[in-house]
Amino acid sequence: MQMDVSASMVSYVVNLYGGNVRVAGNPDAPVERVRVLREGKWGKGVLHVSADAVARPPKGRAVLVPTSDAGGTEDALALLEAASDALVSLQEWDARLEGALSSSISLAEFLRLAEDMIPYSFGFYDSNIAVLGASSNFNEWAEGVAGEQGRASDAPNGTIPNSVLSDLFEDEEYQEAPQHKEPFYYTNTLNDLTTLNSYCINLFNDGDYAARFVVNAPLGEQKLPHGAEQVIEHFVDKLTDFFIRFTGSDAMFGNFHDSVHNLFRGVLFDGEPLEAEALEKSIASYGWLRSHRFLTVKFVFFEAVKWESAAQFICTQLERSIRCSCALSHGRTIAWVLNTSLLAAESDVSDEAIVKVVADTVRVHACKAGISDELEDFSLLRLAFEQSEAALNIGQMRKPHFWYYRFGDYLLDYLMSSMRSDYPPELLISKKLLALMREDEEAGSEYVKTLRCYLDCNQNATHAAEALFMHRTSLLRRLERMVRISGIDFDDPEEVFYLALSLRLLGG
């Protein structure tokens, strides 16, 4: 099918190639050929050109005129040549798009074709705002956005700058954007003087919102030329065909409902049992083995309403930042499962790299995270997630100013909390410690404080005396009194361990 070309599209391309023209009359008039305007002759499907800047066509017709009156037959002929070249350029571009639809080129290569007629920065995003592709000048545009906000660019590889993302996730208008069936403009205010206006077209698959093509107007400009809008709409029509025909619905919607995501979601969030046969069959599709080592991360977000809308986007970013991983969301929570056996084979992925991604995520998206130990055998998946939950819960109590917590750093605290869940502390702690506690209560002594400090200093009397601001001899005499009162044997390793454990149970 031949491309439907309008007068505005021809005008846009002429100006794109250095012209300075406008459309008088109907900007949407269809164009099949171009002719110099002859008085009284208005052909159907013809875009007339005239050197007369004030030419007035009849209703429904269009004439291409210079923006300023240069006059002369030579100017009209130059306009004819420029307009004819523009029409041919549009038709040839359409032919290249049609050819691409019947070839096996990649999405990135197909998007490169857009740049033949769309000089503005653009991005192509899935329904989770994960970038599927972008124009070659996208990073330059992102740096300009960052400059207007007085910050460095944080948008590598075509991603939306985090500063813009934060505004999007909070904007009710943007949350309603997937409902738009027609092209629309979205405005983001960068500062008191500058706005970012983007021309957006949603792509749908069987009536479901699947992706969005976004073209950014130059900073500070309200709209794109009408002809540019029509060119973009034509390209998106072809892009939709390309996407549905060659990448299918899985690529369009993301892969958050494959067998692995569904299995992990059921086990971690819905309390479903983890059956060995189903586990092995499911993770085999990823090239994972049940015997592989893995760890889990649990992210919890502060503002449920704000971040629920961004959850799938963050999951996509996590999976793309570290390969061999699976991220899934549930309300205010994201679970991230990483296959460390496969990651170990990749020299560029280390434990530090994983922690850096966690740190960047909690910094950008206002959340906290718990990280499990590395476990072996995916049948322990639920236990690993419980470790990350425990790290998060205990860590926030012990060090609330931290943003992420590793289970290994709070293992002793976890043991203490597990013991307290079965019996009250007073039934578990050493009777000899209880004797010192009673003496402190009755006599106002500080035997428990002294015991704690002495054990913390590994029973080094000199260091303990310094910490307690007393003479070493005075400390030794106090320890002797404590032994007489309680019967403590500091030479018995098991008793010393029990005393230290008892002090932890008291919350020390």
Q: Would you give an account of this structure?
A:
By secondary structure, the chain is of the alpha+beta class. The chain has 20 helices and 15 strands. The strands form 3 sheets. Strands 10, 11, 12, 13, 14 and 15 form a 6-stranded mixed beta sheet that branches. It has a 5-stranded antiparallel beta sheet with strand order 6-5-9-8-7, with helices on both faces. Helix 2 packs parallel to helix 7 and helix 18 packs across helix 19. It is elongated. The protein starts with 6 loop residues before the first helix and ends with a helix. About 2% of the residues have low confidence. InterPro entries: CdaR-like_regulators, PucR_C-HTH_dom, PucR_C-HTH_sf. This is PucR family transcriptional regulator. It comes from uncultured bacterium Contig1491.
* Number of domain modules: 4
Largest sheet: 6 strands, mixed
Runs with pLDDT <50, length 5+? Answer: 247-254
Using only C-alpha atoms, the radius of gyration works out to 34 Å
Strand content: 15-25%
What CATH architecture of the largest domain would you give?
2-Layer Sandwich
Give the averaged pLDDT, no decimals. Answer: 84
Overall form: elongated
Count, helices: 20
Q: SSE layout and pairings?
A:
Blueprint lengths: L6 H10 L4 E5 L7 E4 L9 E4 L12 E5 L6 H29 L5 H8 L7 E5 L4 E4 L3 H11 L13 H9 L1 H4 L8 E6 L5 E11 L2 E9 L9 H28 L5 H11 L6 H9 L8 E9 L2 H5 L2 H11 L3 E6 L2 E7 H4 L7 H15 L1 E5 L3 E2 L4 H18 L5 E3 L4 H12 L8 H13 L3 H10 L4 H8 L3 H15 L6 H13 L3
Parallel strand pairs: 2-3, 3-4, 13-15
Antiparallel strand pairs: 1-4, 5-6, 5-9, 7-8, 8-9, 10-12, 10-13, 10-14, 11-12
Helix pairs in contact: 1-2, 1-7, 2-7, 3-7, 17-18, 18-19
Protein name: PucR family transcriptional regulator
Organism: uncultured bacterium Contig1491
InterPro entries: CdaR-like_regulators, PucR_C-HTH_dom, PucR_C-HTH_sf
